[in-house]
Amino acid sequence: MNSDAEVIWRKGDIKMPENVKYVVKTAQDELLIRSLRLPIGILNTVRYIADKNDITINEYISSLILERIEVAQ
User: Fold this and answer.
1) Measured between alpha carbons, how far is 15 from 8 in angstroms, rounded to an integer?
2) Calpha distance 60→73 (Å, rounded)
3) What pLDDT digit, counting tens, does each position of 2-16 carry?
């Protein structure tokens, strides 16, 4: 078994490769959505709407929060 790991990006490099960016955003989305502890049906709806609108789950939830804040003001 080869124990050498290929470094594909380091913090501070000029630009994060697209494949790394995808993995990071997906992990962030999953951490956020699991921390909310919503029922599974709601989780699936959030995932579906975010995917349908071609945005991340983080972006979708942020937009919902911003809409509520604007309504409250």
Assistant:
1) 11
2) 20
3) 555 666 777 777 777
Residue 72 lies in a domain: yes
As for how many domains the chain has, the answer is 1
Q: How far is CA 4 from CA 1, 13, 36, in A?
A: 9, 21, 37
Yes or no: say if 22 and 16 are a contact pair by the CB < 8 Å rule. Answer: no
- Whether 23 maps to a domain, the answer reads no
Within a domain: residue 33?
no
Domain range spanning residue 43? 39-73
Q: CA separation (Å) from 73 to 45, 60, 61, 68?
A: 27, 20, 19, 9
**How many residues in total does the chain contain?**
73
Kindly give the residue spans of alpha helices, DSSP state H, lying in the chain. 18-35, 40-52, 57-72
Model pTM score = 0.70
